[in-house]
Amino acid sequence: MQIHVVKSKIHRVKVTGADLNYIGSITIDEDLMDAANIVEGEKVQIVNNNNGERLETYAIPGPRNSGEICLNGAAARKVAKGDVLILITYAIIEMEEAKGFKPAIVFPNEENNLLN
């Protein structure tokens, strides 16, 4: 049997931008993506702590050491600059593997989204 488990989590980052006219996705500082083991194009669940919105899109890398967290396309309507988000990815793995699996959880600086 296979189950869904949390693979990665970036806990409490602030939205730095929202670009309605972009094709789609969420732009994430590539340093944060690396730290959380998130790859370009991977599906990301976005939880907005400010308004309760939950949505899914895919990750694209932003400039390293920029702290960039930008929602693009229609997702831009679900956030405001400064909103606090939790970004989560999941994996489907075998039950036995899941028992010992440890997700990559990242706690960036809440003021600038950079790694401490």
Automatic annotation (TrEMBL):
Required cofactor names: pyruvate
| Residues bearing the modification Pyruvic acid (Ser) | 25
Keywords (alphabetical) are: Autocatalytic cleavage, Cytoplasm, Decarboxylase, Lyase, Pantothenate biosynthesis, Pyruvate, Schiff base, Zymogen
Active site: which residues?
25, 58
Cellular location(s): Cytoplasm
Listed under catalytic activity are: L-aspartate + H(+) = beta-alanine + CO2
Record's keyword annotation contains Cytoplasm: yes
How the cofactor is bound: the record states:
Binds 1 pyruvoyl group covalently per subunit.
Looking at its record, which EC class is this enzyme? lyase
List of residues binding substrate = 57, 73-75
Q: Name one GO molecular function term.
A: aspartate 1-decarboxylase activity
Hey, which pathway is this one from? Answer: Cofactor biosynthesis; (R)-pantothenate biosynthesis; beta-alanine from L-aspartate: step 1/1
PTM annotation = Is synthesized initially as an inactive proenzyme, which is activated by self-cleavage at a specific serine bond to produce a beta-subunit with a hydroxyl group at its C-terminus and an alpha-subunit with a pyruvoyl group at its N-terminus.
Q: What EC number(s) does this enzyme carry? A: 4.1.1.11
Its function? Catalyzes the pyruvoyl-dependent decarboxylation of aspartate to produce beta-alanine.
Q: Which family does it belong to?
A: Belongs to the PanD family.
Which PANTHER family does this one have?
ASPARTATE 1-DECARBOXYLASE
Q: How does the record describe its quaternary structure?
A: Heterooctamer of four alpha and four beta subunits.
Output this protein's name.
Answer: Aspartate 1-decarboxylase
Task: Name its species.
Answer: Mesonia profundi
| Gene it is expressed from | panD
